[in-house]
Amino acid sequence: MRKLQLTLATLLTLSFALVACSGNGGTKPAADPTTKPTDAASTKAPEEDIKSKKVSISIYYPTPDRVEDRALEDDKIRRFNEVYPNVEIIKSDWQYNPNEIGIKMGANEAPTLFNTYASEGKFLAEKGWAADITELFNNYPFKDQMNPALQDLFTVNGKVYGIAQRGYPTGVAVNKKMLEAKGVTLPSFNWTWDDMLNAAKAVSDPAAGISGIAPMGKGNEAGWNWTNFLFTAGGDIQTVQNGKITAIFNSDAGVKALEYYNKLKWEADAIPQDWALGWVDAVGAFAQGRTAMVIAGPDGPVDQGLNQGGMAPEDILVYPIPAYEKGGKHYGVLGGDYLVINPNASKDEQEIAFYYATFDYFSDKGLESLEMNIQERKTDNKYYVPAVLQYFKTDSEYGQKVNDLFNKYDNVYQYGQETLGLIDGKPESPYNTQDYYAQMTNVIQEVFSKQGVDMKAQLDLTAKYVQEKYYDTIQQ
């Protein structure tokens, strides 16, 4: 991730209609180099006829719970093999984990093409665990139409190490019906921390197992959730000056953000009694109506609420992260899904992996496959929930085609224009973001489990540990 702020104009010209964590994978229609481009660009043929060679690649395959995404991937594999019958596609069930990637690479077990998230670009590049695909990318006829807000996150020192799929600025999914049932007035979309706390407190019913909000409390997700409040309070994770990385999250802004979490737990009693929730747990609680609000890349909780929780589109509102105070910024951590090519793969395997990754990008056939998926969902009374940001520029010809497609169907979820006008995205810091998240999770768990924690002292100790363990070992 880059430590630069993305303004609303940069991000939301890209449409809040199309992550992560997280955080959340799955490929979307990706450009067949043999298909005629949809604009004036022309496809440059490979120097060698790759179709004359037998090549085998392993690819990221969505998890079993992502049934519709698997259907899209299966259709893509079928169509890819029609163009490249010489290629064997092996489905990999490995999901990227920063604690496992080194082992996978060392054992030569990582897939040829694997998914990762937005924080990992610099880490993978510097570890030598992502192939330098600069030449392949520069020869790609649609490279200038890629969404720079996402694609640039995997450009490190002028070299390209990954392919953007989709992304998001973190927001807040709100169960409108739960608030209305309690007689709680819906906050303004231009809301503040106090507005969130008051609404969460008013809707919370601990005796009934209902929380007003479910901030994630375990795994790296907890540190990720909290960082949104660090950002909106005016803070940051680290600085990089004259080759030195310095931890700064133990600032006054960090203390304010931690004190806010303390209020949610101990003053408002607004979080789950069992607060040790990861992404799956918190989003699941939202879909099941056990919490009124959840902090995440918006498409995840919206999708689960609609397709697993039986909620109606009008029941779910997507808010930006609340501002610290009126007039403040609604910064949400900028995240997303990326595809990375294994540097241990042969040149032919890397070339084919790039073609596979971009096979449906800017492709009418990919658009047709997406439309079929939307139609199938409609038949099954399910909704299609686009990611907040897509790999393409929305002001491109292809972006307009996608927008027109979404507008044809009433089972495509549409994000509110009020939120679009307020949300702002800020990338994570470029160094050891996941390690920082993990350490902050320990602090958050301390605050949620005990009253009277010295929050400044906890932040100082954690910043010192992150500084010495990680930042001081980095050679710039």
From TrEMBL:
Q: Which InterPro entries match?
A: Bact_solute-bd_prot1, SBP
Instruction: Give positions of region: Disordered.
Output: 25-47
| Keyword RNA-binding listed | no
Q: Which organism is it from?
A: Paenibacillus agaridevorans
Q: Where is the signal peptide?
A: 1-20
Where are the compositionally biased (Low complexity) regions?
27-44
Q: Note the superkingdom of the native organism.
A: Bacteria
Instruction: Enumerate the UniProt keywords alphabetically.
Output: Signal
Indicate what this protein is called per its UniProt record.
ABC transporter substrate-binding protein
